[in-house]
């Protein structure tokens, strides 16, 4: 498998960001990102997808969309739309109608920042997801980089402090979001988790002082999606898009907080004696299965089964575990950074199913 780094949920001057596609490409190249998926608000920007190459590096820019009902106040139920080659914002009046339209076009849909805090200091409301009866969405934005700013800021000094030291903001996905994801997985549904930067690169000016708050390069070096592809990117946009969207849709990926230490090389697999699968895939018990976890370095390691911690290891870089129960198994890893315990790796699940017993009619 080929591991690439993808950063998604990025805004440009086409909505409420400040950068253009060229600037974003240059920032991504300096950060070592392979793919950036831009999702401006309620506008599908056509004709700007491309590879950008410089000094032996290249990055692929792709275009999605962040859709919400603009007539709804306060704002709720934002949806990240990826790989849908059609403008779908006219269907935002009803989340289920919107998701159905995306599925008709073989696109992917992720509930954006489903849980977050309001920030009254800057007149920012919480843009949460409220319609949990919807079906057919691809997954959830488990960790949102910009939304976490609302989590750590409660007054003006805190806002100024974190604006100048953004590396101290990321801690981990909100516990409510992790709990909701596990709740959905425990029903037997396939729900993919992604991380979103929600990057805007906001310009701040006060007299002679000018500063970009949370520049694109900061987000590209922080919370990313590591996708596992069947082969390397070829340079052909259509071929590579298909591989990237297949990995995102299946959940053949993990979330990595790459600022304190690279998460490249993380591995989580399961085998039953007949075949081996990775994240986002299914495996039958025969009658059991073996899970194998490998971390790039020692860390606090947790193996979670249907929302319940199965193993919590204080410091290790690998784990082998035999299991005999069906369900969704996923991995979390934590490390110390800047004096605080922080989330480092959050895998997508491996889905373990009961062995199929042939009936007399088979």
What is the secondary structure topology, with strand pairs?
Layout (H helix, E strand, L loop, with lengths): L1 E9 L10 H11 L3 E4 L11 E5 L2 E7 L1 E3 L11 E4 L12 H10 L3 E4 L27 E6 L2 H6 L3 H9 L10 H12 L5 E5 L5 E5 L2 E5 L2 H5 L2 E7 L7 H14 L2 E5 L9 E5 L4 E3 L3 E3 L4 E17 L2 E16 L3 E11 L2 E8 L2 E4 L9
Parallel strand pairs: 1-2, 2-4, 7-8, 8-9, 16-21
Antiparallel strand pairs: 1-12, 3-4, 5-6, 6-7, 10-11, 12-13, 13-20, 14-15, 14-17, 17-18, 17-19, 19-20, 19-21
Mean pLDDT: 92
Low-confidence stretches: none
Principal-axis shape equals globular
Q: What is the C-alpha radius of gyration, as a whole number of Å?
A: 20 Å
Residue share in β-strands? 35-45%
For the record, what is the CATH homologous superfamily label? Metal-dependent hydrolases
Question: Quick recap of the structure?
Answer:
The chain is α+β, with helices and mostly antiparallel strands and 362 residues long. It has one domain (2-259): Alpha-Beta Barrel (TIM Barrel), CATH 3.20.20.
Mind explaining what this structure looks like?
The strands form three sheets. Strands 1, 2, 3, 4, 12, 13, 14, 15, 16, 17, 18, 19, 20 and 21 form a 14-stranded mixed sheet that branches. The chain has a five-stranded mixed sheet with strand order 5-6-7-8-9. The chain is 19% helix and 38% strand. It contains seven helices and 21 strands. The mean pLDDT is 92. The protein has one domain: Alpha-Beta Barrel (TIM Barrel). The chain starts with a strand and ends in a 9-residue tail after the last strand. The protein is α+β, with helices and mostly antiparallel strands and 362 residues long. It is globular, with a radius of gyration of 20 Å.
């Amino acid at each position: 498998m080929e591991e690439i780094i993808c950063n998604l949920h990025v805004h440009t001057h086409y909505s409420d960001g400040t950068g253009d596609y060229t600037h974003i490409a240059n920032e991504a190249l300096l950060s070592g990102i392979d793919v950036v998926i831009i999702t401006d608000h309620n506008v599908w920007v056509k004709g700007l997808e491309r590879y950008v190459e410089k000094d032996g590096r290249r990055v692929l820019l792709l275009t999605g969309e962040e859709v919400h009902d603009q007539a709804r106040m306060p704002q709720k139920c934002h949806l990240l739309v990826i790989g849908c080659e059609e403008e779908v914002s006219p269907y935002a009046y009803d989340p289920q109608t919107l998701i159905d339209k995306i599925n008709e076009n073989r696109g992917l849909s992720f509930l954006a920042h489903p849980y977050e805090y309001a920030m009254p200091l800057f007149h920012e409301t919480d843009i949460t997801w409220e319609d949990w009866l919807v079906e057919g969405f691809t997954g959830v934005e488990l960790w949102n980089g910009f939304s976490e700013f609302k989590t750590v800021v409660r007054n003006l000094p805190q806002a100024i402090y974190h604006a100048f030291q953004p590396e101290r903001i990321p801690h981990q996905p909100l516990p409510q979001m992790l709990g909701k994801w596990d709740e959905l997985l425990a029903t037997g549904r396939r729900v993919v988790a992604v991380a979103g930067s929600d990057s805007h690169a906001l310009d701040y000016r006060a007299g002679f002082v000018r500063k970009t708050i949370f520049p694109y390069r900061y987000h590209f070096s922080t919370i990313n999606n590591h996708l596992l592809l069947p082969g390397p990117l070829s340079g052909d946009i259509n071929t590579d898009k298909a591989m990237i969207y297949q990995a995102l849709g299946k959940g053949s990926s993990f979330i990595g907080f790459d600022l304190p230490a690279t998460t490249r090389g993380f591995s989580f697999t399961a085998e039953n004696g007949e075949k081996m699968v990775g994240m986002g895939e299914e495996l039958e018990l025969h009658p059991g299965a073996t899970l194998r976890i490998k971390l790039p370095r020692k860390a606090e390691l947790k193996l979670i089964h249907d929302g319940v911690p199965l193993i919590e290891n204080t410091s290790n870089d690998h784990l082998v575990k035999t299991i005999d129960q069906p369900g969704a198994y996923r991995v979390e890893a934590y490390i110390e950074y800047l004096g605080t315990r922080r989330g480092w790796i959050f895998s997508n699940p491996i889905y373990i199913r009961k062995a199929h017993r042939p009936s007399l009619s088979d």
